[in-house]
């Protein structure tokens, strides 16, 4: 029975990683850059919800919507101000370093505004916990909502990319930026849209993350951000189903490793698995081998 | 006003440079010492304090600074120590070892004769090297790491980290609080793992059993579902948390979500749990913690201290404030025991104080304290339980 409990916790934690990983993988697939500030956008989302729900006493739905709007705007602004001017720079490292810079900027601004104290986050999930097998197995409302949200997002995103015009444009840009532009696709607009969607997902992830683990500091986004990046690489960076599978597997491995091997080695186990997977399959689980054409 | 601030900052910077230069050459410091002693021959005790008054640990440093001021005011109003008034000067170290040594050097330039500090362990461990070189009497209110007082000139008011582990195990065992105990600790933190090791060692002598010992690390401290599940499966009646309050607030939340309701017991790191913003304090109901001081205790001394502190600083004193208050009265008691005067040299004062410290008994806010020659306090551990969102003495 405790195995099932561990498994459900793992899937729940993995679902959060998966939603964050989607942001990494979409941006990488389309703009070919690693947006290291993604984790910190989550933290900003958390503070927006906290300010609106706890600070102003408005309903959680208003808080979630405001967080989605704020993160979307933030994502687009970061892209426009910090990444776009460097897109055609000589070195692709420039934009990577800028991303790290933005990450620290967001952390320090949050530190300045909200202080270093840990803020306790009131869960915005009102679904009651489910008690099974006479109390031996309790599944919290947050866990149920997180897993459901993850499934809905995955289905919605897959439909959006495969059925809508904007989604097709994203696919085209990720295949070949130059050719897409020649076909009349607005490449800059498409990249901005990608950042908008990725950041909106970060807002959703922030609500789920902070509801399940109710503490918020300016560094809250950092570690989940890195884990989600690992999940994206694990699943095959650039692949949307890959990010989902990578995220959930990572969560399950982390929790089961903690439970059955060693609770203090959890992170070491996660990264060891990553190394093994990459040695066997360098492009990740669902990554495609791209042939360089001369 | 701005000009004045700049000038002050420049002056402070300059004095730091001078101080650090002085610190380099031991000879300069020694030749300077007799002059300092003469400088204070007019008859005031010059006691320095060091602690973080800015930065992340500022709450600890400010508490100590305020309590030192309060105690000094009271002592001076009552006629000083051995008939001499007390003067204090408190320097900020931002909880940084290097800045702490700089602060120590500038206090020496000011003419410090005894040091109360430093407030936090890591800087204290650095500064004790300097006080040992200078043979300056060093009493830390709250530096709890073992190495913080490793020389014979250094003493402390609080329990050392490992001693909290021993004291917790004894308290749980002797009061029969539980027979099956689980521990959740931070293996990446020396405070937490130090307490855990001593706790586990002492548990062998006590009438309870450790059924699960689960660790977490600084990089993985939001999800405790696994550790709690294992404690639950092992049938633990009590979970011992030798950790800081931030993680403890998450553990309490997650335990309640999964329907696990053991007793919780922690050390001084849990002090601050009730102050976590937006924390549902009903989750902390019944949590016990080993802390030397509870602001709501109803003895006269605590009541008087809390009232005076609240009046002067608009804040409820925490255990750091109590430790610092006791530190000032400890110095008073030891000086009176040794019957020394401020015109003696720093080193002579220190030698006299070393002997006197082991002979005195201080009735302080944090208990009745005596000291051993290695600088460790000997006092009864006190525990408080959280009831109705406030500490109640047990």
Keywords:
heterodimer; A: 294 residues; two-stranded antiparallel ribbon; globular; B: 394 residues; alpha/beta; Rossmann fold; 2 domains; seven-stranded mixed beta sheet; five-stranded parallel beta sheet; 12 helices; elongated
How are the secondary structure elements laid out?
The complex is a heterodimer of chains A (294) and B (394).
Chain A (H helix, E strand, L loop, with lengths): L1 H30 L6 H18 L4 H24 L8 H23 L4 E2 L9 E3 L4 E3 L1 H23 L1 H11 L1 H6 L4 H26 L2 E2 L5 H14 L4 H21 L5 H15 L14
Chain B lengths: L1 H23 L1 H14 L4 E8 L6 H20 L7 E8 L4 H14 L3 E4 L3 H14 L2 E4 L13 E3 L4 H14 L5 E7 L3 H14 L5 E8 L8 H9 L4 E4 L3 H13 L5 E4 L21 E3 L9 H14 L5 H20 L7 H12 L3 E4 L2 E5 L5 E2 L4 E5 L2 E4 L1
Summarize it:
The complex is a heterodimer of chains A (294) and B (394). By secondary structure, chain A is mostly helical.
Q: Share of helix among residues of chain B? A: 40-55%
Report Rg of chain A: 19 Å
The helix-and-strand class of chain B reads alpha/beta
Which structural class matches the secondary elements of chain A?
mainly alpha
Count of distinct strands of chain A:
4
